[in-house]
Structure formats: structure tokens, C-alpha cells
């Protein structure tokens, strides 16, 4: 059964294949899973009106329809949100989300307010550009937990030069800061319809003409959440049939030294149970 990893729109998909030693995809391939990964690419000027639902109907669904059998979908972060949208409008064998946001109204009020202020100041410029720069999105992530960001860089000062720990840290930072922009419509949806409007959690987000309801999916579903995640707290995860918690952060859950035991191997077992 083909398994398709759907990374977030917000950063490059390489976080799932960061390095030979820290690659979820290579681990899955070594376990004999038939693995594919979506690369969303860089939006062009013509993509300014491509919203989140359009990424599902115009990009993801046509790609998935090329497989000879309904695939298993695994979506990371916002990719998990979009994977739920795809599973709602086309045949899918099974679905797993990793740190995916859904119930935005369960975020701390001060976090939603900070995101709203960020978008209010940036929206006019983004509308003129036709896209939402990665720098704006990264600023939003920093605003959610600025103290943790400072601690992270302070701790890096004590890392041994040339060590595997140093290489891993730099690889993650390169990944985090190298993302392409979002199309303007997708960014507007993220800030206005999801963060501010909670359309997914309220059941009003639609893909095509169909409202997306995760609890109505008639297939095996799994939501993996992180109890240490400040970007996508466990409380805002989608309501899927099965849920599992781990104590690694939003990025650490897929690339840290503990990710193999905490996520990769249990996820591989779940895939095998689904015939993947």
C-alpha cells in the first residue's frame, strides 16, 4: 500500500529527510514501506489566489489520484490539516496526522491575539506582494514562545564544535529559515479563517463543496500529538479515531535523537497494521 507523507506548506519537506542519521523517510523505507513525499514547491505569481482548499483540490488530490490504489496519508503540521481535507473528498486507505492543528479556538487567547496583531500589520504588504514571506511566518512562531527561542540559542553556545549535535542543530535551523513563501490566499486563510475564525474546529471549513468533518471519516485514523509542543499544542489536534502522545517538541518529534523510538518505530508499526 503506498504511503504518502504530506509536509506542512510552511517549511520545506526536507525536515522528514533531514540527514542520513535523522531521516524519518529513510527509516520508513528501510522498514519496507512504499514511501512517497509531497514537495509543494515554490508558488508562482499565478498562485496568489490559491487558498488552502485549493492546495487540496488542485495540487494534492490530482497527485494522489495517480496511485493505482488509495494511499495511506501521513500529514505533518499544516500538512496534516490538508491531508484530512483530501481524505474527505477522495478514497484514502488510512490517515495519520503528526502535530496537526485543527481546533484553533483552544489556543491560548494571548497567542491568538499575537498572531492577529502580526497579520494586521503585514496583510497590506502581503496583498501587494501576492504571497506571505517565510520571514513573517517565522516571526509568528518566535512570538509564540520567545523565551524558548532565546534559551535554544544560548544552549547552542555550549555545543561542541564539529559534533553531531552541532550539525543537527544547524541543519534544523537551515530548514526552518529556508522555506518558500505561502501564496497570499493560503496565508490569508491560515491567519483569518483558521487562527482567527477556527473554521476547521467549528466544522465550517470546506474543500470543494464539502465541509470537512474528521469524525465522519470511515477509515483508520491516528493523531499523534506532542505534549511539549508550543507551535501546535496537543489540545488543538484533530479529533481522529486513535490518538497517541509523545513528549518531544514540534520539530524534535520528527528529527531528534529520541524520535526513532518515540515516533518512527511506533508509526512504522501502525503503517504495517494498515497494510502499508
Please outline what is shown here.
With 276 residues, the protein is α/β, with parallel strands linked by helices. The protein contains eleven helices and ten strands.
Written description of the protein model:
This protein has 276 residues and is of the alpha/beta class. The chain contains eleven helices and ten strands. A six-stranded parallel beta sheet has the order 2-1-3-4-9-10, sandwiched between helices. Strands 5-6 form a two-stranded antiparallel sheet. Helix 2 packs across helix 8 (184-196) and helix 4 runs antiparallel to helix 8. The radius of gyration is 18 Å and the shape is globular. The mean pLDDT is 92.
Secondary structure: elements and pairs:
Layout: E1 2-6, H1 24-30, E2 34-37, H2 52-64, E3 72-76, H3 78-89, E4 94-98, H4 109-129, E5 131-132, H5 134-144, H6 146-156, H7 164-176, E6 182-183, H8 184-196, H9 199-202, E7 206-207, E8 210-211, E9 221-226, E10 242-246, H10 252-255, H11 259-273
Parallel strand pairs: 1-2, 1-3, 3-4, 4-9, 9-10
Antiparallel strand pairs: 5-6, 7-8
Helix pairs in contact: 2-3, 2-8, 4-5, 4-8
Task: List its salient traits.
globular, 276 residues, two-stranded antiparallel ribbon, 11 helices, alpha/beta, single chain
Strand order of the largest sheet: 2-1-3-4-9-10
Element order, helices and strands?
Answer: EHEHEHEHEHHHEHHEEEEHH
Strand content: 5-15%
Q: Alpha-carbon distance between the termini? A: 5 Å
Number of helical elements: 11
The low-confidence runs, each spanning 5 or more residues with pLDDT under 50, are none
Largest sheet: 6 strands, parallel
Structural class: alpha/beta
Radius of gyration: 18 Å
Q: Which outline best applies?
A: globular
- In total, the number of strands is 10
Please, what is the average pLDDT? Answer: 92
The residue fraction in helices comes out at 40-55%
